[in-house]
Write a structure and sequence with these properties.
four-stranded mixed β-sheet, FAD/NAD(P)-binding domain, 2 domains, elongated, about 25% strand, alpha/beta, five-stranded parallel β-sheet
Amino acid sequence: MTTDAISTDAIIVGAGPVGLFAVFELGLNDMKCQLVDILDKPGGQCAELYPEKPIYDIPGLPIVTGAGLVDALMKQIEPFNPVFHLSQMAESLTKTDEGKWRLTTDAGTVLEAPVMVIAAGGGSFVPKKPPIKGIEQYEGKSVFYSVRRMETFRDRSILIAGGGDSALDWTLNLQPLAHRLTLVHRRDEFRAAPDSVKKMRELAEAGKIDLRIAQIVQLHGEGGQIEAVTLKPDEGEPYTVQCDTLLPFYGLTMKLGPVANFGINLHQNLIQVDTAKFESDIPTIFAIGDINTYPGKLKLILSGFHEAALMAQQAFRYVHPDRKLRFQYTTSSSDLQNKLGVQ
C-alpha cells in the first residue's frame, strides 16, 4: 500500500439512503467505511431531487420526507464514524499487489480496501451543461459546475446562472466573498426555498448583487479565461456583462459514469448480482440498490436496505477471514448495543 492511500475496510461508492444503511450493516460487523459521492452532501436523490417530497413505503414510517429519511440514517450511523469524500467522482479502480481495491477520485483522493460496495443508484449525478457554443474551453478554468472550496472564488467577479436551490444558495454564500456577483435566470420566478429567494431579492434591492432576467447566449474570453458574457432578455436587445467566473447551476442528470469502466459485468447499464450476497461477477465487489439487477428486482429503497444486510454478511468474510461470523440481533445482543452506544 502506498503512503498516500487511505486504508479502510470497505469503500462505498454512493452516499444515498442505501449506501448510508450499508454503513450501519457493515459497522455492526466491525467494518469501517469511507464513502465517495459526487454530490456535496450525503443523501443521493432523496437529498438532491426531492428533499421535501413525502415517501410512504419505508417500514415503520408511514410518511417521511427525503430529507427526513437522510437525517435519520445519518443519525443511525453516527456510532460508526464513516468518512465522506463529497463532491468527488469515483474515477478509476485498480487492484493492489496485496489484493486490495484502490479507488481514485477526480479530486485525487486515493482509497484502499479489501471490499468495494457500489451503491450509486442510477449512476453518478453530473451537471446539466448549458447549450452555449465553446463553453468547453473555459471549463475547469473559469467555468465551474460545483463549488468545492468557497475561498477559491474570493474577490472574483462571479456570474451565477440558474433558478433552483443550488443557484440561490451559492448566491447567498458567495456574495460576501465576491468582488461582484450577478445572478442570471431566464424568468423572474425561482424554484428555490422561499426564504432563499427572499434573501436574494433583499441583496438585489440593496445593490449588493445584480439580478438579471435573461439567458446566456455567448461567452467572451481567451485562453480559458472568461472576460464577459452576453445576455439576451425576452424583450429588448442583447447586452454584455463583465465577469471572470461563470457558475451554471442548471440541475443534474444521471449517468453511469466511470463505474462502467470498472470491468464489472453489466446488463443494460446495471450490475448483475446474485441474490445471496449481492456480489458482482468480480469477487469482493458488491452492488446494492438501484445500480444492480437480478430476477425479481424491485427498485425500492427498502429492497436496497435488505441487499445491504446480506452484502455485509459476505463482506465480513473477506475483511475478517480469521474470524467466525456470529449472527446477532440488536434487540438482544449486548455486543451490538455497545457498538451503538445503547445504555
